[in-house]
Amino acid sequence: MIAHFVRAVAVPTLIFVSTWMGASAAEPMTLHTRARTQAVTGTDRIKVIEKQVQWDPARTAVVVCDMWDKHHCPDATERVAEMAPRMNEVLKAARARGMLIIHCPSDTMGFYKDHPGRKLAQAAPKVETRVPLEGWCAVNGAKEPPLPIDDSDGGCDGSPDSPSYKAWTRQHPALEIMDGDAITDSAEAFYLMRQRGITNVVIMGVHINMCVLGRPFAIRQMVAQGQNVLLMRDMTDSMYNHRKRPWVSHFRGTELVVEHIEQYWCPSVTSADFLRGEPFRFKGHVTKKIVLIIGENEYSTWETLPEFARRELEWRGYEVSAVMATHRETAPNANTFASFEAIRDADIIVVSVRRRTPQKAMMDLLRAHVTAGKPVVGLRTANHAFQATPPSANFAAWNDFDTAVLGGHYAGHYNNKPPAAPHSLIEVVESSAAHPVLTGMKTAPFRVTSHLYKCRGLAPTAVPLLRGRVEGQETVEPVAWVHITDGRRVFYTSLGNVDDFKLPVFRRMLLNGILWSLNDLVPPVEFDIAATDKKAPDPAGAAPTPEASPKAENPPE
Question: Which pLDDT belongs to residue 532?
Answer without folding.
Answer: 66
